[in-house]
Amino acid sequence: FAELHAAVPGLPLASSRVLPGIVLRRDFAAYCPADGELRALLVTEPLRPALTAPGVEFVVDSEGQYQASLRWISKRTEDLMKHLQSNNIKLLLSSAKQEEVVIYYAKLYGVSLVECLSSEEMSLISEITGVSPCAPFVDNRDREITEAAAVTFCQPLLLASRRCVHIGLSSACAFQPHCLVLCGPAGGVNEQHAAAVQGALTMLQQLCKAVDQ
Asked: How far is CA 45 from CA 34, 78, 95, 103, 175, in A?
């Protein structure tokens, strides 16, 4: 329930509504409008390539070597975004904070990016879509990316003064996610309303289980 409702203080209760899909309570790091169904990739690690393997020290002896390293990182990141674009990946959902070079090339190649998702949000998206997070940075650029989720829409959503991300997911199971936008004049009132709604849903769930049995 925590990931499927958004409390919006400062608005009347009558402004509450149910939206298809899920609402992520953060803004896009990069937003590139795209029409029709698109493919999304779930990632849990920074996409900026590392210069060395873990535990290996990388020594730069000159300014020239440092600049060459930055160019290598930039080129590898651009190659990744080209690879995503060629596989029709238009959305990255990341639990990790991504660096500016990743955001720059995501915008350049038309890939929207949402970062710093919680583990609960990532788990919910994986459960709905049946797709697990992956590490898309591969040396073989000819390999097709198959670990992608189908997204029916992806757009910004303004809740009061807060910018959020609203996405529709093609479910791999019977569960069709909807998000409750619960408005109220103050935070305390919103919490009371949210607790009441959650209690009612729990009661209905228990009632349905009893009927099934």
From this structure: 25, 17, 7, 14, 28
Q: Is 29 exposed, middle or buried (0-12, 13-18, 19+ CB in 10 A)?
A: buried
Mean pLDDT computed over every residue of the chain? 85
The arithmetic mean of pLDDT across residues 8-37, rounded, is 89
The reply to whether CATH 1.20.58.100 applies to domain 22-171 is no
Helix (H, G, I), strand (E, B), or coil: what is residue 15?
helix
**Integer CA distances (angstroms), 202 to 23, 84, 96, 127, 212, in order:** 21, 41, 33, 20, 15
Residue-range domain boundaries for the chain: 1-20+177-212, 22-171
**% of the chain residues with pLDDT over 70:** 89
Residue ranges of alpha helices (H) inside 15-174 are 63-86, 100-108, 119-129
Instruction: Give Rg (Cα) of the chain.
Output: 21
Is pLDDT larger for residue 114 or for residue 192? 114
Bridge partner list, 38: 151
Whether 27 and 115 have beta carbons less than 8 Å apart is answered as: no
Lowest mean pLDDT: which of 29-43, 105-119, 190-204?
190-204
Calpha distance 106→54 (Å, rounded)? 26
